Amino acid sequence: MEIIQRSSSIPMSAITPDSTSSAGHETPLIDVAKVAATKANAASGPLIDVRDLSLRFSTGSEILAAVNLEVKRGEFVALLGPSGCGKSTLLRVMAGLIHSTGGVVTIDGLEPANARKNRHPLAFVFQDPTLLPWRTVRDNIRLPLELQGVSYAEQMKAVEASLPLIGLTPADATKRPRSLSGGMRMRVSLARALVTNPHILFMDEPFAALDDVLRQQLNEEVLALSRQKQWTCVFVTHNVAEAAFMADRVLVMRSKPGSIARVIDVPFAHPRTAALRESAEFAQFAGQVSRELREVMSW
Amino acid sequence: MVTGPTTVVSTTASQWGLYVLRTIVPPLVLFVIVLMAWDGAVRFWGIKPYILPGPWRVLSAITSSRDELTKAFLLTGGSAVVGFTLSVLVGTLVGCLFSQSTIIRSSGYPYAIFLQTVPIIAVAPLIILWFGRGFGGVVAVAFVISLFPMIANATAGMVQIDPDLFDLFKLNDASRWQILFKLRLPNSVPSLCTGARTSSGLAVVGAIVGEFYAGYGSKHFGLGYIIRLTTDQAKTDALFAAVMVSTLLGILIFGVVSLISLTVLARWAPPEVGERA
């Protein structure tokens, strides 16, 4: 499988530090330091390495074919593609939840299950909050630590630390999921993911069911948190603006069978705030990604 | 806010009032209508009491033999409750076992279905033969007849789980025991409650059928024994009295189980789930 890598076609002159000041930013849209750091990281090798990956179900249907991709430490990668193209399946294979029928997935040189146990704790945020309805918010958040045999005192300490990070109050912690809104449930799901202090965070369209305003708010919060915690993130979405806002790189997938059709570097600097979405550069970039996606879908 | 708790209490009280109004009043009204129609039919067509006694005659039979009926009620109720409790425990354990492997489930499930399909009237004498006459035999019949709904519902509740939840447990290297006790069992509670409601009624039927065969003797007997005896003696009003008390026992056990289920399920069931006619 050939990976077609294209750099952004946005003219550099259109994305300058000057243009940011009009949007109220203090930081430049193009993160020169990050580009340099990315190049340096490339030399040190990827954290997640997917080579010639294929997946065929027992029914004979080919779900993924010849998938190649690399994710560097601390990088935020978005998998973008039409529904049914295998994005979620690819994410599950990378997390070690599904075994591929061909090719290799390694995390820091180890199989995902081994890497998870021995070196790189990873967390997975599902499309639905997947909370246990009989447990309170606090008990849902501490579940991963409980399963891993962490002492109760440590569990509670970690839960209390994670609550404010994701915008939850101690009063929320005693509620049951059924009394929470969709957005709050997703916050609990995120808190449960970060309570284990993961190195790698896999997210499978976690905000797809939320309204646009809440989605954007959570995009900003999760992105800020991922930068602060230096997580390596793989984020599945079919929303172009979301991918453009959050990711360092957007991998556009084609379907039947699923494979990577385009790799697009996102040129915007961090921190990214709501103002970025209103900038002409962002609209132009999102438009470009949309065009790439349409091209891929028309194949 | 000062008025907050008061509002909550009054809302809860009004909700309970509405619940009582919706669930208890309509069947009571229907019961009164049926009694009036029954009494009217007996009087209008002049039906002989040994064919169909009027409601007042049945009430009189209940009153005159209330001591016997109370003892029988307690004895049959006791064996039904013990049989039902055993079916809840064994059904849940079998559900746990069936949830562990598809092979175990596909091997054992046909035998569980056997419990449902076999005519209890046919096997009750056999069960009495094995477990002896008296309380033990009656409990065994009540247990056998009420077991299948528990097995079926326990298994469904422990197997039909959101695959993402299994993935969540797998990602955190959960053991088989952790999956059973922290996921499968709690997830099956709503199904277990549904099974328990069905089984509770069946346990009463089982206890009465068991007493048809096991009896207890002339000094010590349950409702099944009275039903059989009054049928043989053509004492239709006493038969109706025993049937009425049996029905009351069934409703009482079903009501208690439903109440426990509602209390337990308050942690599980989302409030927005409702029913539409």
Automatic annotation (TrEMBL), chain B:
InterPro entries named among the record's database cross-references: MetI-like, MetI-like_sf
Domain ABC transmembrane type-1: 73-261
Main location: membrane
Membrane topology: Multi-pass membrane protein
Transmembrane segments: 16-38, 72-103, 109-131, 138-161, 238-266
Key words of the record: Cell membrane, Membrane, Transmembrane, Transmembrane helix, Transport
Localisation: Cell membrane
Any one GO biological process: transmembrane transport
PROSITE patterns membership: ABC_TM1
Keyword flag Cell membrane: yes
Gene Ontology cellular-component annotations: plasma membrane
Entry-linked PANTHER family: ABC TRANSPORTER PERMEASE PROTEIN, ALKANE SULFONATE ABC TRANSPORTER-RELATED, MEMBRANE SUBUNIT
Entry's family note: Belongs to the binding-protein-dependent transport system permease family.
Protein name, entry field: ABC transporter permease
Originating organism: Planctopirus hydrillae
Highest classification ranks of the organism: Bacteria, Pseudomonadati, Planctomycetota, Planctomycetia, Planctomycetales
